[in-house]
Amino acid sequence: MASLGRASAIIGAGTLVSRLTGLLRSVVLVAVVGSYGSRAADAFTTANMLPTNIYELVAAGVITGIIVPQIVKAAAHTDGGSRFVSKLLTLGTVLLLAATVVIMALAPLLIWLYVPGYTPEQSALALSLAYWCLPQLLFYGLYALLGEVLNARRVFGPYSWAPTVNNLVSIAGFGVFLAAFGGPFTEVSDWNSTMVTLLGGTATLGIALQAAVLIFFWRRTGLHIRPDFRWRGMGLRHIGTLAGWTFLTVVVGQVAGLIQSRVVSDASGSAGITVIVYAWLIFMLPHSIVAMSISTTYFTRMSEQVAAGEFDQIGPNLDESIRALSVFAFGFMAALAAASVPLSRIFTNSASGAVAMAWVLCAYLIALVPFGVLVIVRRAFFAFQDTRTPFTFAVVQAVLAATGALLAALAVGAGWLPLAFLAVAVALTQSVSTFVQLPVALRLLRRHTGRLRLGATWRALGRFTLASVPSFAAGWLTFLLLGGTEGWTATDRVPGAVGAATIGAATLVVYVAMLAVLRAPELAIAIRTARRLTGR
Fold first, then answer.
1. Residues 319, 457 contacting (CB under 8 angstroms)
2. Where are the beta strands (DSSP E) in 350-457?
3. What 3-state DSSP class applies to 367?
4. Per-residue pLDDT tens for 15-37?
5. How far is the C-alpha of 241 from the C-alpha of 499, rounded, in Å?
6. DSSP string, 222-277
7. pTM of the prediction?
């Protein structure tokens, strides 16, 4: 447990730094293209999210869900797994190169598929930016391949710290843009080819260096790698079967995301796709710091337990990881919701834009805890090398999310829902679908583990819920005392950051005090983890 705690802290600290620099990157980007009401920002957001979405479709589920258990098994080979990893990296690089070439050729079709509501001029700008951004697909894939090999060999830190390199490069590049051209340029007609090249090229250069930096830590794996095109004998049929279901799981998620994107594209110029992306960025901050650091280390341990046949340890493993995640997640959920307007002001150019984004953010935050728990549960299936069952409950979530988005669009068309609240409705239905998906996933997991015995887990979640309600109330009262939506915290970005920090601190102080009053044993774990994150 001590080694897992240290590993989680290293990952959490790296993720914290990368997410904080990512927030700064976003602030600088808003100074370049704007956000709320900016058609240029929506065009760049579309172009820059395409490689991420395609990567999720063609590689992410396979790499993160399947590769770690295979590398853990290969470690038992006489060479420690070097030949297997050599074949794996060679095959992965070839496939990623081919996919990148194909996707760049399909760029015009992708723009049309994702954002049919754009004007012809806005679509043209999005396409020009996409040609610069789509090579990120290759570098995202290489980063994930190298990073998961490092994780499987228990070299946990570099994978979580590397995105900081991307953020710093992007901040520098966007700073050069501001020095050369000024900003924000929110209208499509403001942009020329030089501006497109600098903005799109900077975004892709950051991802390339993010992948390259992992090479400097490779020696710690103890693996000796060389190009190896002899792929027979590495279990491709077995991996292909697992990957097939993972691919289908990602497909249904991407189809739902595509429907959501097409629906929200009609709101470009208001609370459009950029607002959703920035709200999701804030939502993912605590998730990435806590859920990903905890799930990554526990996933490696679960994979080792399954490989050793220690199935009776999976239930306690889940209990530990869910409680460790949730004690943080409930506090962050309350703090972010209470400070949603000042936080959103950091990424918008007006108080009205901040209020609009805050609605979307809160709609996502409702599902922060089940979203994190689902990551852990899904990885438990992957530890059992079961990728078919996650497809089942992914379909449930995707159908509900897509249906909700379509119903929201119909409500706007019928005049029942204002266009400004379209993005809120899409985010809310996404959250509702997550709540439905989680109990389905837990029930299906029992096929592998038998009775999970998570009674202590549910009691802990009850304690966290009781603690989060008064803590949110304290944070919201602080926000009102500072002037609410008409106060100084919504006047500009710096006051917004100061206000968000003040409100968040008030919320978390009450949350910790309530956990102490409730005598929650998880409080001690949280304090130890926080000390590790801060290096104390």
1. yes
2. none
3. coil
4. 778 878 888 898 899 999 988 77
5. 51
6. T---------TTS-HHHHHHHHHHHHHHHHHHHHHHHHHHHHHGGGTTSS-HHHHH
7. 0.74
